[in-house]
């Protein structure tokens, strides 16, 4: 993953934010929309690209565009910083390779201990019965 190349490929669009805020909401376009083309990026190699496409399938549109929005702050610049950080965090999380699970077996001493406990429990239950002479 090449962050400089990815940063140059990001497209930002400023949009009017929704919700409460009075006149400021109606006049200022502070909401930032980040658009990233996953399919034609040069910042990711082929393996990373396929991993991102599978992991972020729900967030990618049919045109292979990853679209993120941020309207947390009233400042356009702060929203841009927040959304780029969120984008890189999302990519890093998607690119993590899961550890391969190693199959393990139950040890011999653990098996013996389990059998001894079963035998002990069985003896306790057997001793509860009434003796038949």
From TrEMBL:
Prokaryotic-type class I peptide chain release factors domain span: 7-128
InterPro entries: Pep_chain_release_fac_I (IPR000352)
A GO term for molecular function: peptidyl-tRNA hydrolase activity
GO terms (BP aspect): rescue of stalled ribosome
Transmembrane segments: none
Coiled coil: none
NCBIfam families reported for this sequence: PRK09256.1
Name recorded for this polypeptide: Probable protein chain release factor
Organism whose genome encodes this protein: Flavobacterium indicum (strain DSM 17447 / CIP 109464 / GPTSA100-9)
């Amino acid at each position: 993953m090449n962050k400089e190349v990815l940063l140059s490929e990001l497209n930002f669009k400023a949009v009017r934010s929704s919700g409460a805020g009075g006149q400021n909401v109606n006049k200022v376009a502070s909401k930032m929309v980040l658009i990233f083309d996953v399919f034609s990026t040069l910042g990711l190699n082929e393996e990373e690209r396929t991993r991102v496409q599978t992991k972020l399938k729900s967030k990618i549109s049919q045109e292979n565009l990853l679209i993120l929005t941020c309207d947390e702050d009233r400042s356009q610049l702060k929203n841009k910083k927040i959304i780029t950080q969120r984008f890189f965090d999302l990519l890093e999380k998607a690119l993590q390779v899961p550890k391969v699970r190693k199959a393990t077996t139950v040890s011999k001493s653990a098996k013996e201990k389990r059998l001894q406990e079963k035998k002990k429990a069985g003896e306790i239950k057997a001793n509860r019965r009434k003796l038949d002479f």
